[in-house]
């Protein structure tokens, strides 16, 4: 990528004000494969100024013009699909097949969903003599994480464009190449100059400057709860809107009437997907206490069968985690599980055999986990499954809800009616019954310290809109 050390501002690739570079590490090898520039507050000022200027005209575009623009973006995205697969696989270590079928696919799915949403969305409603009008919120600051780059960028950029907003994107500096490719896609699709801008950099510099900026009207942040708190505090002085999708410790309730082998097997696989690096991963599995050992045996089968290896190896089921920092954190959490008395059924500390370089973690299963253990309470963000036992359904629900997080939940039961009843009792933003298929239209977001606001489809579009009441509009 020729402009890897530049930023995309006002429709052009330009050099940073102050030269400062960072190597991008391939997690499969733990070696650099690209170099980017890290931006400053001055670079943010330039990007925001471009977005503010562009807002005057872009906010007045028609719905059909914005539909046409999103369709053009989708067309170019499909043309560059393999490039997106390669970028994601390289920068975050996702196995090629997973990067193709899941990671890059989410970008397509959410563009398609936003086009359908925009085709039917009602921006104006007349209620008696009052007009309710939904208008773009303004200039938006977007901060995205490294774990699902195409997904997270699309679920912010697409609704912002659909709403008529302009924006500045700061992707994760750990996985920036897919974001720079995204900028190329938007440029080729004809997004007007200044509508979309990209500045790479560190959260405490670029992210902080965006959050504090007086000309940014909204911050949309996805990442850790700790960083989300920092964004909200920095944004408070300018009273801008802050939308946050933060951490999770999602519960998977396997009810007593469920097919235990099937439920545990599918739940373990879902936990280990993306090397466990998904905020909504079902990392807390609740099973009837009397069947704990049986459940452990099924989860162990899944963990032992996974082939861990480099992203470009065709045999790899699971790649590395993103960084040395993440690897070290996961190892400390595994050590805590052993130290606090959980039963280690599969995996454990250290790298898988034969993998001396790269940030590889052994798929790990703990059983007989108690509700007060560290691995049952804290987000690990790695391939570590904690299995907890329960005696009654009420106990399982109470433990599932007793968390600072509330992002996602999973319920398995032979009775859909029973699963629906339990779903009403879980305090989480999204619930999947019997491993229902992923939906790009389902509202995504959380309760408590998992954030506020919702993404995906019409719910994501609503978050980029202001509501105006025009009284006396009708007769």
From TrEMBL:
Keywords from the UniProt entry: Oxidoreductase
Gene3D superfamilies the UniProt entry points to: Aldehyde Dehydrogenase, Chain A, domain 1, Aldehyde Dehydrogenase, Chain A, domain 2
Chain ranges of the Aldehyde dehydrogenase domain: 13-469
Signal peptide region: none
InterPro entries (UniProt xref): Ald_DH/histidinol_DH, Ald_DH_C, Ald_DH_N, Aldehyde_DH_dom
Pfam families cross-referenced by the UniProt entry: Aldedh
MF annotations from Gene Ontology: oxidoreductase activity, acting on the aldehyde or oxo group of donors, NAD or NADP as acceptor
Coiled coil start-end: none
Family according to the record: Belongs to the aldehyde dehydrogenase family.
Protein name per UniProt: Aldehyde dehydrogenase
Species name: Paraburkholderia hospita
């Amino acid at each position: 990528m020729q402009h890897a050390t530049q930023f995309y501002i006002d429709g052009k690739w330009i050099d940073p004000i102050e030269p400062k570079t960072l190597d991008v590490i391939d997690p499969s090898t733990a070696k650099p494969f690209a170099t980017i520039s890290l931006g400053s507050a001055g670079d943010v000022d330039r990007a925001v100024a471009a977005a503010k200027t562009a807002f005057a005209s872009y906010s007045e575009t028609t719905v059909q013009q914005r539909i046409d623009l999103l369709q053009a973006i989708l067309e170019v995205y499909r043309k560059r699909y393999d490039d997106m697969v390669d970028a994601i696989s390289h920068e975050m270590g996702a196995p090629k097949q997973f990067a193709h079928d899941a990671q890059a696919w989410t970008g397509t799915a959410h563009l398609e969903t936003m086009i359908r949403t925009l085709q039917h969305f009602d921006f104006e409603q007349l209620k008696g003599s009052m007009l309710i009008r939904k208008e773009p919120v303004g200039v938006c600051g977007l901060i995205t994480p490294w774990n699902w780059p195409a997904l997270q960028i699309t679920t912010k950029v697409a609704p912002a464009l659909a709403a008529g907003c302009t924006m500045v994107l700061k992707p994760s500096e750990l996985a920036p190449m897919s974001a720079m490719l995204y900028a190329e896609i938007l440029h080729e699709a004809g997004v007007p100059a200044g509508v979309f801008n990209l500045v790479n950099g560190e959260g405490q510099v670029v992210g902080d400057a965006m959050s504090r900026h007086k000309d940014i009207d909204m911050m949309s942040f996805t990442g850790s709860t700790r960083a989300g708190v920092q964004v909200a505090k920095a944004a408070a002085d300018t009273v801008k809107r802050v939308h946050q999708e933060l951490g999770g410790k999602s519960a998977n309730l396997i009810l007593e009437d469920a097919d235990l082998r099937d439920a545990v097997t599918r739940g373990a696989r879902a936990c280990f997907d993306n090397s466990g690096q998904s905020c909504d991963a079902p990392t807390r599995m609740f099973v009837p206490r009397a069947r704990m050992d049986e459940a452990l045996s099924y989860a162990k089968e899944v963990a032992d069968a996974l082939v861990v290896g480099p992203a470009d190896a065709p045999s790899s089921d699971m790649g590395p985690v993103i960084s040395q920092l993440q690897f070290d954190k996961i190892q400390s959490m595994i050590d805590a599980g052993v130290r606090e008395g959980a039963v280690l059924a599969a995996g454990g500390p250290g790298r898988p055999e034969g993998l001396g370089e790269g940030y590889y973690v052994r798929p790990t299963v703990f059983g007989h986990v108690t509700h007060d253990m560290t691995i049952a309470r804290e987000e690990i963000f790695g391939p570590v499954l904690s299995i907890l036992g329960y005696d009654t359904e009420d106990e399982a629900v109470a433990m599932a809800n007793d968390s600072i997080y509330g992002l996602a939940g999973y319920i398995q039961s032979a009775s859909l009616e029973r699963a629906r009843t339990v779903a009403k009792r879980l305090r989480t933003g999204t619930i999947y019954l019997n491993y229902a298929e992923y939906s790009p239209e389902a509202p995504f977001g959380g309760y408590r310290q998992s954030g506020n606001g919702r993404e995906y489809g019409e719910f994501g579009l609503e978050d980029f809109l202001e509501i105006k009441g025009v009284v006396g509009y009708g007769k």
